Amino acid sequence: MNRFEAAARALRTAAPDELLDAVRVVLTERYQALDVDLFMADYGLTVLQAVSGVPLRTPEPLPVHAGPAGRAFGAQEPYCEERRDGRARLHLPVSVRGDRLGVLSVTLPSGDTARACEAELAELADVLGREVLVAERDTDLYLQARRRDRLTLAAEMQWQLLPGRSCSRPEYDLGAQLEPAYAIYGDNFDWSVKADHLMLYVTNGMGEGIEASLLTNLAINALRNARRAGLSIADQAALADQAVYAHYRGRCYLSVLMFDFDLTTGRASVVDAGSPQLLRLRGGEVERVDFDAQLPLGMFEETDYVAQEFQVQPGDRLLFVSDGVHEVASPKGEPYGEQALTRAIQSTRLLPAAEVPRALLRELTGHRGEAAVAEDDALVVCLDWRGRPGRA
């Protein structure tokens, strides 16, 4: 058994809360590692927080957008930091199918040693990422490491409902972020992919706190139930509408924009039920895309929904934003508006999809004022469409 296989096996057989201990032992014994740390990106995507594996030894949080570890996280490529004492600190992105979890940082005796084993250790970081996701079913260790502050109960429910923050396939890249990360209410996103289809939902729930979160949980699970039964998106919307109305009798309802993309052709079926906004960046130009608006889910009993057709082209970037983005006001009461949003989309056009939502939300914070408290959720989802390889 070679050293990589031994390391991967050690991770697969480790107890859920002992993954860091297992990777420390195997990297020390087989790769001459002098020090090993695992950092997880916090919910707000502002810092990389250390997973505490050794008592009385927890490294300080590192910035997500600066420094060697932040560089590896942002570029999603290994970064070697050579030190004056001759040692090298290798920072390796920990990701699963495009979902950025954090960074594995390994100190090695020299830069030559780091370069010699960089490829193997990068692959091992991917194995670690998968094991972390599996381990989260049985331990809170890695979820706790993602918290810079305490989550509200509503935010706890919302984060547990999400599929991830990013996803990558040959046909597309997806990235999403919610703010305020530690106190979100009812905004949400969900996606699911199979051989030839990507289904994407962007929701904007009414209300605040736990009531908004309960409403969103009911609607998203109703949509998933219908999707997993093989229903079309129009029928998914109708079933979720019935579920929400049956419980709230029209007192509460939820806006949702639903897409079913054909990965082969780029054609999509769309249901716009009181939706968040969609903006498209194509050929350097930003334009708002409007659909025929239909009633939000749960507003009335037995609403019928009709899907529209929409075509996406290779190179398109789609931005989905909730009203917490385009309606947020400055200290002087000026709304953020479509013009400012267009400028922000243009300024982030070179960033990968996974980084765009956080960058746009930073612009939003600047407009609102750093000291101002957000009065509503803000949600941004970015979809970069490449289309199926081999198709013109």
Please explain how this structure is put together:
With 392 residues, this protein is of the alpha+beta class. The chain has 2 domains: 144 residues, GAF domain (Beta-Lactamase), CATH 3.30.450; 233 residues, Phosphatase 2c, domain 1, CATH 3.60.40.10. Helix content is 35%, strand content 28%. It contains 11 helices and 17 strands. The strands form 3 sheets. The chain has a 6-stranded antiparallel β-sheet with strand order 3-2-1-6-5-4, sandwiched between helices. Strands 7-8-17-16-13-14 form a 6-stranded antiparallel β-sheet. Helix 1 packs antiparallel against helix 2, helix 1 packs parallel to helix 4 and helix 7 runs antiparallel to helix 8. The N and C termini lie far apart (44 Å). 44% of the residues are buried.
List keywords for this structure.
11 helices; 2 domains; Beta-Lactamase; alpha+beta; 6-stranded antiparallel sheet; PPM-type_phosphatase-like_dom; PPM-type-like_dom_sf; Phosphatase 2c, domain 1; single chain; hydrolase; Bact_Sigma-Reg; Phosphatase; 392 residues
In total, the number of strands is 17
Helix content: 25-40%
Helix and strand composition category: alpha+beta
Give the count of structural domains: 2
Counted by DSSP, the helix tally is 11
Sheet with most strands: strand arrangement: 3-2-1-6-5-4
Rounded to an integer, what's the Rg over CA atoms?
22 Å
Give the termini separation: 44 Å
Low-confidence stretches: none
Report the top-level CATH class of the largest domain: Alpha Beta
Mean pLDDT: 91
CATH topology of the largest domain: Phosphatase 2c, domain 1
Keywords: Hydrolase
InterPro entries: Bact_Sigma-Reg, PPM-type-like_dom_sf, PPM-type_phosphatase-like_dom
GO molecular function: phosphatase activity
Domain PPM-type phosphatase: 171-385
